[in-house]
Amino acid sequence: MTTDFAAPFQRPGERLEDLGLDGLYILQDPDAFRFNIDSVLLAWYAAPAVHRKTRTLDIGTGTGVLPLLLYGRTHTRSIDAIEIQAAMADMASRSVAMNHLEDVIRIQEGDIREEPGRALDRGAYDVIVTNPPYMPKGQGEVNPEPALALARHEIACTLDDVAAAAQALLKDRGKLFMVHRAERVVDLCAVLRAHQLEVKRIRAVQPFPDKPANQILLQAAKRGKAGTIVEPPLSIYQAPGVYSDEINAIYGTDGPKPKAFA
């Protein structure tokens, strides 16, 4: 799909996708990592903490979907985002420009473990969001496509790296929002607490009401007090091929067809 407004920003082979929110669009490469329902759920989960004057940072922004979704939900005025892969950072920057949001969303290519990632404003952010690589290094089959391998495996960014960056960059009592695999919940809580990030809320995400959770949405607070609220689970489907009422509400009135986000 190509439209006249996207032509100056879209490169050959890229797809233009309607985010279905506030008239926003995003560029995607069909052969590289593309956003999925994880990002949609994370933006929805974090949005109540993001206001017009909130300083927000997205660690590992990929193609920039989280900043765009957060802006669409909140109309906040300041979102920084950092991405280690140059091609992804470039695509994200072009999506931001295509939506005329350069004054709100600032995409930066960099590594949070090194400069310029370390040059981000330390202790300055109210909210950090991140959809980090799910698979520990050495576990699972690594995709031969480098962009997909980096997005899915802790090759260039580990959970500890994310937690250390969040500890350094958040204000005291600042909030970290994350989506991750449910099977790593113990790792998540342990690593975050080691970096003075106390888990305050956890919501399990399950494919069907009668199935175990395969993901979690998590909120932690820097130097927060101990104590965690385990929220009611969120079911993606109510029946095969039929989204749950809550998922439809997250997307909008009737929700998209499930196959659109498979």
Automatic annotation (TrEMBL):
Keywords: Methyltransferase, Transferase. One of its GO terms (biological process) is methylation. Residues 52-182 form the Methyltransferase small domain. The keyword Secreted does not apply. One of its GO terms (molecular function) is N-methyltransferase activity. Pfam families: MTS. This is tRNA1(Val) (Adenine(37)-N6)-methyltransferase. It comes from Pseudoramibacter porci.
